[in-house]
Write a structure and sequence with these properties.
The chain is mostly helical. The protein is 63% helix and 0% strand. It has five helices and no strands. It is globular.
Length: 91
Amino acid sequence: ENLKPRVQWLKDLGMDNSQVAKTIMKFPQLMCCSLDQNLKPMVQWLKELGMDDSQVAKTIANFPQLMGCSLEENLKPMVQWLKELGMDDSQ
């Protein structure tokens, strides 16, 4: 029963049933992630990086493991490091 909100959330991002199923098969732990503590903040951050809704959905579908990473401990420092190396937001 508590899986339905996560499945609906993935659909609301723009995924169809097939993409949702493949995403969950690649990273079943996604169904244990908190919507409010993990998933929604991650999507917000991806949008702040310049991704639109379809790019966010595609990123999650292709790399669902990303949703299990810590924003503060892993992703934000890595993006900052890449920027320091000269990578810009478009990359």
